[in-house]
Amino acid sequence: xxxxxxxxxxxxxxxxxxxxxxxxxxxxxxxxxxxxxxxxxxxxxxxxxxxxxxxxxxxxxxxxxxxxxxxxxxxxxxxxxxxxxxxxxxxxxxxxxxxxxxxxxxxxxxxxxxxxxxxxxxxxxxxxxxxxxxxxxxxxxxxxxxxxxxxxxxxxxxxxxxxxxxxxxxxxxxxxxxxxxxxxxxxxxxxxxxxxxxxxxxxxxxxxxxxxxxxxxxxxxxxxxxxxxxxxxxxxxxxxxxxxxxxxxxxxxxxxxxxxxxxxxxxxxxxxxxxxxxxxxxxxxxxxxxxxxxxxxxxxxxxxxxxxxxxxxxxxxxxxxxxxxxxxxxxxxxxxxxxxxxxxxxxxxxxxxxxxxxxxxxxxxxxxxxxxxxxxxxxxxxxxxxxxxxxxxxxxxxxxxxxxxxxxxxxxxxxxxxxxxxxxxxxxxxxxxxxxxxxxxxxxxxxxxxxxxxxxxxxxxxxxxxxxxxxxxxxxxxxxxxxxxxxxxxxxxxxxxxxxxxxxxxxxxxxxxxxxxxxxxxxxxxxxxxxxxxxxxxxxxxxxxxxxxxxxxxxxxxxxxxxxxxxxxxxxxxxxxxxxxxxxxxxxxxxxxxxxxxxxxxxxxxxxxxxxxxxxxxxxxxxxxxxxxxxxxxxxxxxxxxxxxxxxxxxxxxxxxxxxxxxxxxxxxxxxxxxxxxxxxxxxxxxxxxxxxxxxxxxxxxxxx
Length: 705
What we know:
Keywords: Hydrolase, Protease, Serine protease, Signal. By secondary structure, the protein is of the alpha+beta class. It has 13 helices and 39 strands. 42% of the residues are buried.
């Protein structure tokens, strides 16, 4: 690697500034080229930056540090602006706050935050909301001394006496399970390391089931049984998944009667169950796995209820007797519909609630078990999101659901399914004089390259909007069938109040428009995701919702792949792009089965050991398609300890872009040396990352304060 001055770039900039001299930015880091040939299918790729995958190599750390210093130097003139943005983001947050309590097994559970604390308190009250509060987990105290701290989950034993919880202190999503008494002072010494964080109690109040990750793929592949008071070294392996394209998980049914082990891949699933009162029983398979057969299981009384794509592209709802669980016994309850995607369902004693997706929007459908009468909830907005929330009790006529839109803060609502009365239990409070009437949300439809209509959700501040003149922040994800549903963001107000139009492109690869929407954006149709996004950007400009020279794009993880692809295809569309923890070295990663998560992704991207998929991936992989052309300004972020997208993908991509691009636009790489895929863990600390991203685009848009 070419050496730099002994003084860091940031130190140079600070020194010159302190001397009141005009700061001239240093040259950007120049990664050493060490050619490596990668050959398959009689084709050879030359990778000059392959060496960057050595996480422990001092040369790699030095390079990443140099890039960080360079980013700090380039962005130094925005430091005060970043502080201002951060302060206003924090000022909108109600620091002392509390979630809506949810009743489960005789207790009300909730979380709350106090003052400037980065983390919440997890609490409960017995029998009544007027009862004395019991703080189960004091996370602000527990997090002291850690640069990163996260509670994965917690679970209470059936007799309500013992709390099991999981914590991650490394940002690698490797959780340690611990136990504490909720009755008396007993402290348990049991610790279970390297788990996925999930905890499932049997009904004997001493046995828990948990999953662990494969050491290479990082996919959960084993389910263990732990008995309280014994060494975790003696835990019994109750299930091991041998197929490295599948992952496993565990849960207890809402009825509290069964322990379920689920196994899933991109296109197939399988479930096993035992009686929760008999944790030493042998698990029974409900329906053996078949390729392209997906299903999920709930339980009520004498039946299992099943959401499945069995002979149903958009999924349907079935039920089957507990004693006869294979698919030939399944009885249809809600049929497949070509224009409606069945997302999920919730069972109550008197009602069935079905989550559906139609025309790109979520709907909640209520059906009375006895009469068969049904109705839909009316949300009254053009674009929004609604979802079934925590409903742990069967014997209730009240549905708790969540609601938000681009102009409506996140709300928790109780809906009486008999009287049809809605009660807003809580709406996110936005400090600083927020008035939703100052903002307008709209839904547009762009025409994709192949004629497909692609929905766009957008919001802007009414008094800041001038047709054809506003800067645009356009984001998308578009992979894994994960839908980019709209939501309210108090952080986003920092863009809207400065005249930005903020929009989400619901591109193919998500599941907004149903299952076919996902299938038209994966495998050998993946490029639809990228061309859809570019078409949405063009449409926003054509309709006057964005100035042609002020279009900015944001995408993270697989959405970062999207960012890399769109700027290779049509870089002229964008003034600036932010790629957060981007998956950009598609071919090399998918060929390396030792990299975490690779094997489980073959049904999403394809297996490049098959030449057809290799050639197709190679045609869009952002890293492989960097060329000598002008690119927009770029801010690329990653985490050294990222377990989802390895840091070297964005590092290699930036190095290659820096070598080949023909423009003078900023190209910045920011590596968080402490955190992983999700970034910082504290509720305020993570806003510093948002402030950096916002300052980057606002500065490019000519907005300085």
